Amino acid sequence: MKNIFEARSITKDFHIEGLFGGKKRVVRALDNVSVCMEAGSVMAVVGESGSGKTTFGRCAAGLEIQDSGIILFEGKPVDFKDRETRRKIQYIFQDTYGSLNPRIRAGAAVMEAISHCFGISGKELEAEAFKCLFDVGLSEREFYKYPHELSGGQRQRIVIARALAVKPELLIADEPVSSLDVSVQAQILSLFLGLNRKGISIIFITHDLRIVRALADNVTVFKNGKIVESGPVASVYNRPKDPYSALLISSVPGTGKKR
Amino acid sequence: MIKAGKTAATGERMAVETVSLSVSYALKQGGKVYALRKADFRLPEAGSVAIVGESGCGKSTLALSLLSLLPDNADYSGEALIFGKKTLGASGEELRRVRGIKAGIIFQDPCASLNPVFTIKQQIEETILAHMPGTDKKELREIGLSLLEETGIQDPERVYMSYPHQLSGGQQQRVMTSIALSCGPGLLIADEPTTALDVTVQAQIVALLKKLRKKRRLALMLITHDLHLALELSDRIVVMYAGEIVEDSLIRGVKDARHPYTRLLFEVIPDINSRKKKFKVIPGSLPDLRVLSPGCYFKDRCPRAKARCGHERPELTGKAGHVCRCFYPLD
Question: Containing domain of residue A71, as a range?
């Protein structure tokens, strides 16, 4: 199997109610989007707000259903009703507070995910959860803490641990480090690199083009719901074909390129 | 080697000055967080500086202190002055003469700073009337529209009559800047002004701030966690860590950085031109600011730390134009 993920002609519209019974609007969030991804690679999805990159990620994870087009996972049309498929494709949100139950301690959140997928319990379950926490650089101390007792970086590690606990093959991460300090970002990004080295494919959605260079193999640029450019990171960055890609790259502070 | 804190002999007027400014926050469960400790900082009239640091470094506390906007649980000592007038702890009357008139401030999220139920017209004019009461309707509108034009708004008449939610993030930030400048202050404080904006819009706002600074001879104090953004806007960088100023200098890039934290901060920012699949990491995390450390606050994460760093506190030392808080700075 060469491609772990493929999107073919995906279109997604959102219907927006007018205020106070005003006119309805239709926003085309994704417009005939097609892209594919090799197993074991990291694909960065970049674009500004409203570009469709988040909607793309959500469709890829089954959190939204596209209006037309198909998504293929491991060469077959994806069936999000299938438990195994849902286990193999995991999603990481930007907002850690939103994705962790504030009344459940960190370790318990991870155990909940494991027992749901693998049906183990008791000491074995606890041991497995501890291992997941260690794998993301956390310790026993964090196991017993509530989300609000952890730092932003630690919370994001719990979210990642929980996603990894079910042994996924594809991770879709939507701006997972955007709300973190630069030095903490670096730690979490190193973690992602490590996961990719272990064979996990990653779709990494971000607006920060600096991260993309060191993290991704390929990059897909979204604008107004369309893909304007897609390819290996080095060639898109060094020789962008689309003027919008070139503009994005040159807008990043510190590129040393003239605007 | 001179110690920082000696008054410049040039007789320059200072837009901003803090003297041994310390701020702590009282915690509900008891104890305090020592958020800012003995900050000595000066910004000359029409000068520009970027205060750079990560969460918990004290940069926002410093900005809030300058306009006496600290929360109720804050305890402070030392002084903060804007154009020679004391602000921290000043009376409401005295502060009214500084806020808006001498110093304007723009915050990170323009959407949160604009009132959603009032038009832009109402919000700009409200600010002008608050500081210059009695201005007539026609003049108010003229000033308002010219401010919007000045901050690069393409169709000022339409935007003037709009509500905030009808504008894009970039437009909202330009409106915020108009409001901040509406009473002609000599100092603009910008606290993470581009963080919530798309990268192409960020670039536009940076260009706008540069233009305004030149045109209005503004002193500009930018607060940011983005080191590269800081270098775009200012020649002078003040780096803060765990409540202290650790470096204050005119630096152009990583080679000028003398404090180990500053050097690492440059290195952890992923390089858009790099081909390596690696992220440089600063190991460890911020020290607990509820406890006053006997030594350097960076020692546990510092690759150059030695025994002395554990029990002696370094002061800001160096040449004029470049000081650094370290016993073993890089060269």
Answer: 3-95+170-251
Closest chain A residue to B267, measured at CA: A183
Q: How far is CA B160 from CA A131, B126, B146, in A?
A: 58, 13, 11
**The two structure tokens encoding residue A196:** 């990719």
Is there a contact between A193 and B198 if contact means CB atoms under 8 Å apart?
no
Residue A246 pLDDT greater than 70, yes or no: yes
SS3 A190: helix
Model confidence, pTM: 0.84
- How many whole angstroms separate alpha carbon A60 and alpha carbon A240? 26
- ipTM of the modeled complex: 0.74
Asked if residue A90 is part of any domain, the answer here is yes
How many CB atoms are located within 10 Å of the residue A164 CB? 22
Decide if A249 and B200 are in contact by the 8 Å CB cutoff: no
| Cα–Cα distance for residue pair A105/A99, rounded to 1 Å | 13
Q: Residue B233 contacts by C-beta under 8 Å, 6 or more apart in sequence?
A: B48, B50, B206, B209, B210, B220, B222
Please give the pLDDT value at position B202: 85
Distance in Å, alpha carbon of A213 to nearest chain B alpha carbon: 6
Residue A193 lies in a domain: yes
Are the Cβ atoms of A254 and B231 closer than 8 angstroms? Answer: yes
* Count of structural domains, chain A: 1
Which has the higher per-residue pLDDT, A59 or B286? A59
How many C-beta neighbours within 10 Å does residue A29 have? 25
In a domain, A65, yes or no: yes
Domain of A231, CATH number, reads: 3.40.50.300
